[in-house]
Amino acid sequence: MNKFIENLNWRYATKEFDTSKKVSRGDLDEIIEVFRLSASGFWLQPWKLFVIEDEDLKKQIMGAAWNQKQVWENSYLLVFAKNLNVDKNLVDKYLDRSAELNWISRYDLSGYEQTLLWFVDSTPREYLQIFSENQVYLSLWNVLAFLADKKIDSCPVWGFDNEKVDAILSLRDKWFASVILLPIGYRSENDTNLKRKKVRFEKEDIFEIM
Ligand SMILES: Cc1cc2nc3c(=O)[nH]c(=O)nc-3n(C[C@H](O)[C@H](O)[C@H](O)COP(=O)(O)O)c2cc1C
Questions:
Q1: Best mutation site among 155, 160, 193 for ligand 1, i.e. most ligand atoms within 8 A of its Cβ?
Q2: Among the atoms of ligand 1, which is closest to the Cα of residue 160?
């Protein structure tokens, strides 16, 4: 079977991690690199990954996440956040970086600059936030697929109070807001989800050739 498909069958939403095993710093660095390399609309990368290692912080976040145990007992809790300021400053940041890496001047990028400024200036703020959130989900998927390849377990967690988590981590002060949590670690043999079948609809239910 294709390795990617094998990985997708291997991964599952892990509810209980084996707390005697910890994801290494080297693996964490690679996870961060995968996040960094994720594609985003207009190249804007409107996101930030907060890596929570502090046990007390994780416990507080669990309290804001319906007391889901996997949010506390894990190797690291990744908090995928969206940038609340998709604006001219972010456009400048991207263009400066692009000019530097490509050894060209900002002037050479002025056509693209007009497009980006049109996008951030003419799009209502609430849509820009939806834009950011969508990009964050794309990066989440990259990380999920990579974790499966590394045989590191995880559980995306959407069931949490965003405002509470943002307050615990003071994210809004930095102009970020949480989108999704991702505890990572190694599965416990006692995890009840481990014994469950992967439940997916039949092919004919989920696609059509037209
Ligand atoms: C965006 C998103 C949010 C999720 N939120 C939660 C959650 O809050 N708690 C939880 O236990 N699982 C959560 N899950 C896990 C899903 O329930 C799980 O991925 C789905 O049932 C498919 O099962 P599988 O991942 O084991 O293949 C979430 C998954 C996704 C993709």
A1: 155
A2: 8
Do residues 144 and 4 lie in contact, with contact meaning Cβ atoms separated by under 8 Å?
no
Residue among 7, 68, 157, 196 whose CB has most ligand 1 atoms within 8 A, to mutate: 157
Q: For atom 31 of ligand 1, which residue has the closest CA?
A: 156
Say how far apart CA 180 and CA 159 lie, in whole Å: 9
* Total of domains in the chain: 1
pLDDT-derived band at 186, boundaries 50, 70, 90: very high
Domain annotation covers residue 203: no
Tell the residue nearest (CA) to atom 13 of ligand 1.
157
Give residue-wise pLDDT tens across range 50-86. 999 999 999 999 999 999 999 999 999 999 999 999 9
Distance 122 CA to ligand 1 centre (A): 35
Is residue 204 included in any domain, yes or no?
no
CATH code of residue 185: 3.40.109.10
E strand or H helix at 179, and its extent? strand 176-185
Task: Output the pTM of the full model.
Answer: 0.97
In a domain, 131, yes or no: yes
pLDDT in tens, 134-176: 999 999 999 999 999 999 999 999 999 999 999 999 999 999 9
Q: Write out the residue range of the structural domain in which residue 84 sits.
A: 3-198
Residue 49, in any domain of the structure: yes
Exposure string over 39-61, b if 16+ CB within 10 A, otherwise e: ebebebbbbbbbebeeeebbebb
Mean pLDDT score, 106-129:
97
List, chain by chain if needed, residues with CB within 6 Å of any ligand 1 atom.
12-13, 68, 155-159, 180, 198
